[in-house]
Design a protein that fits this description.
Elements (H helix, E strand, L loop, with lengths): L18 H7 L8 H14 L8 E4 L6 H6 L5 E5 L10 E7 L7 E4 L2 E7 H4 L8 E4 L3 H17 L11 E3 L2 H5 L4 E2 L3 E4 L4 E4 L5 E4 L3 H5 L3 E2 L10 H4 L4 H18 L8 E3 L2 E2 L9 E2 L6 E5 L2 E5 L6 E4 L1 H11 L4 H12 L3 H15 L5 E2 L4
Parallel strand pairs: 1-2, 1-9, 2-3, 5-6, 6-7, 13-14
Antiparallel strand pairs: 3-4, 4-5, 8-12, 9-10, 10-11, 13-16, 15-19, 16-17, 17-18
Helix pairs in contact: 10-11, 10-12, 11-12
Length: about 375
C-alpha cells in the first residue's frame, strides 16, 4: 500500500518571529506596525488562545490604564481606547475605537473592525465581516450543544461556525475548561473591575491586578455563569466530543468547505461500517474525509492535508476507530482481505507515516 502524499499544504503559525519583527511589534499602534500587532492581539484576546503574546489586556472606554502600566511586560499587548491618554508602561500598545460590551457592538483597529454577535442570532444574521460569536446565556449554550450533536449525527454544521470570518469567543476555555493557567486575556472595566475574556468572571479590582494575574485559575472562569460549570469542567467523553467538534469546524474553515461538500469521519459518515469499531478518534487527531478529489487526511494543527488511496483510507479509518492494534489489525485484514501480518504492518505504517493514532475507547451504549 502506498501512502499518497498528494497535495500538501503547510501553513506557518508565526510563532517564531524574527528579532526584527519582534522589535517592530513593540512599537505603538500609532507607529509603523499596528496592522501586525492589533488584529493578532485582538484575536487572541477574543478566543483566549495564547500564540504570539503572553497576555493581552483590553482596557474599556473610561477605564484607567495606570494599574495595567505597572504589571504588563514588554511582550504583552494592551488594547487602549483611542482617546485615552499617553501610556508610559513597557507593553506594546494598540489603540482602538468602539467597544465590545453588548451584542452588536463593533471595535475597530485602524480600518479593521470586529462585531460582537450572540450565538443563536448569528445563524440569522448576514455576516459581512469579522465577527466574534459569543454564547451569552443558557439558551444559547443549549443551542450550541444541540448543534454539536446534530453535526455528529448528520455532518451538518452551523453556518456561522464554519465561516472563516467568525471566531467563537472564549474558545480556548470551552475546549479545555479545567486546565489551570494564569489569566492571559484580561479585561479592565470603567469601574475598575478585572475580568477574564469577553464576559467572564470578575476576579477583583485593578488595584489587585498584580496578585490576580499570579493566581492560576481554571480556564472556565472566562465563561462566568453562562454555561453550567459541571458540564464545562467534565473531563470525560462529553468534553472531548465538544473539543473534537470545534476542531471539525476549524477543518471546515481550513478547507473552505460548505455543508455537503465533503464527508467527515465521525460526523454523519464512516468509511468503515463493519460493526467492530470500539473507539472514537483522539481529540487532536487529523480528520479523514471523502471529497470530490478522493480521500483526504487533514490536520488542523499543522494545516497539512494528504490525498490517500482507498486502501490507505481504510487502514486509517480502522486505526482511528479501534482502541488497540489487535482490533485494528483484525478489521483491516477482513476489509482488505490480507493476512494478519500484512494488516499489522499496514496499521503500524499508518501510525508512523500519517500521524494517525488508535482511538479512545467508548462504551458500547
Amino acid at each position: 500500500m502506498s501512502y499518497d502524499s498528494g497535495r500538501k499544504h503547510a501553513g506557518e503559525r508565526e510563532l517564531g518571529a524574527t528579532h526584527a519583527r519582534r522589535r517592530m511589534m513593540r512599537e505603538d499602534a500609532e507607529g509603523t506596525a499596528p496592522e501586525l500587532v492589533g488584529p493578532r492581539a485582538l484575536r487572541e484576546w477574543l478566543t483566549g488562545a495564547r500564540e504570539s503574546y503572553p497576555r493581552v489586556f483590553l482596557v474599556d472606554n473610561g477605564a484607567t490604564a495606570e494599574g495595567v502600566e505597572e504589571v504588563a511586560g514588554a511582550e504583552d499587548v494592551i488594547l487602549l481606547p483611542a482617546e485615552s491618554g499617553p501610556f508610559a508602561g513597557r507593553a506594546r500598545v494598540v489603540r482602538y475605537r468602539g467597544a465590545l460590551n453588548e451584542v452588536g457592538d463593533e471595535l475597530f483597529i485602524g480600518e479593521r473592525g470586529v462585531e460582537l454577535q450572540e450565538y443563536v442570532a448569528a445563524a440569522f444574521v448576514h455576516i459581512v465581516g469579522p465577527t466574534a460569536v459569543c454564547i451569552l446565556d443558557a439558551s444559547s449554550w443549549r443551542a450550541f450543544l444541540d448543534d454539536a450533536e446534530l453535526a455528529r449525527r448528520t455532518g451538518v454544521f452551523p453556518s456561522a461556525l464554519i465561516d472563516p470570518r467568525v471566531l467563537l469567543a472564549d474558545r480556548a476555555a470551552l475546549a479545555r475548561p479545567g486546565e489551570l493557567e494564569k489569566p492571559t486575556a484580561i479585561r479592565v472595566s470603567a469601574e475598575g473591575r478585572v475580568s477574564v475574556g469577553v464576559q467572564g468572571e470578575v476576579l477583583g479590582g485593578v488595584d489587585e491586578l498584580l496578585a490576580l494575574l499570579a493566581l492560576p485559575l481554571p480556564r472556565a472562569v472566562a465563561w462566568g455563569d453562562r454555561a453550567p460549570r459541571e458540564v464545562l469542567t467534565d473531563d470525560g467523553r462529553n468534553r472531548e466530543r465538544i473539543e473534537r467538534y470545534l476542531n471539525a469546524t476549524d477543518l471546515m474553515k481550513m478547507l473552505r468547505l460548505a455543508n455537503g461538500a465533503a464527508k467527515i469521519s465521525g460526523f454523519g459518515w464512516s468509511l468503515l461500517d463493519d460493526g467492530l469499531a470500539d473507539a472514537e478518534p483522539l481529540t487532536a487527531d487529523p480528520f479523514l474525509l471523502e471529497t470530490a478529489e478522493g480521500f483526504v487526511f487533514a490536520d488542523t494543527r499543522t494545516l497539512r492535508r494528504q490525498l490517500l488511496s482507498p486502501s490507505t483510507a481504510t487502514v486509517v479509518a480502522a486505526t482511528q476507530t479501534s482502541s488497540t492494534l489487535e482490533i485494528a489489525v483484525e478489521r483491516v485484514a477482513r476489509q482488505l482481505r490480507v493476512r494478519t501480518p500484512v494488516a499489522n504492518v499496514l496499521c503500524l505504517e499508518a501510525v508512523a507515516a500519517l500521524d494517525a493514532h488508535f482511538g479512545r475507547r467508548v462504551d458500547a451504549s
